Amino acid sequence: MVQKAKILLVDDRPENLLALEAILSALDQTLVRASSGEEALKALLTDDFAVILLDVQMPGMDGFETAAHIKRRERTRDIPIIFLTAINHGPHHTFRGYAAGAVDYISKPFDPWVLRAKVSVFVELYMKNCQLREQASLLRLQLENGGHSGRTGVLEPQEPAGLLAELSARLAAVEEQAEALSKQLDESADAAAVATAAHLERKLTGLRRALDALEPGAGSGASPVPSQS
């Protein structure tokens, strides 16, 4: 059963949070509210998020300061941040948003369809990354135990050749999905999303290389499986 991705919505105005929930509800993911930068940072301590929608103008800790804290934490530094602002102070203000680590900077009022489309891209990339980590974890577990997980989740004996073939097929399915996503992103020309997709493809390439090294005749030793963080 596929677990839903979590999307963090940060805005000090309840009506803005309600509007964001209405726009993003069609994605059928888990939407988490935060009414301040402090509340957002607290939520990020325990949960993993696919993307953060962060209001710039907030009392106390504003969006720029909140983003700076997010990017300083190892656990959260790679989470995409989309800044939302009702005030446009020109290129300098926009540059400050990107300098703070945002992948996008959207001025209100915005097109609901465009915002939903942008968020859906990062949700899909997040899901692909989760799937990749699960495949890597399964590979390590099966190689350590010399078996594979059946439908019950219990490791069952399997010949190495059959195990490698099964893992290769599973990885191929992820590779195919990642390739289709990359083609879709090439058409959208969203530089930040394209860069994230390229990072995912590099991870897939490393995992494929490690798996190929385990094939008979590939060499005397197996390459270590790359860390999927």
From TrEMBL:
Residues 164-191 form a coiled coil. The keyword Coiled coil applies. Keywords: Coiled coil, Phosphoprotein. Residues 6-123 form the Response regulatory domain. SMART domains: REC. It holds the Pfam family Response_reg. The modification 4-aspartylphosphate is found at D55. This is Two-component system response regulator. It comes from Streptomyces ehimensis.
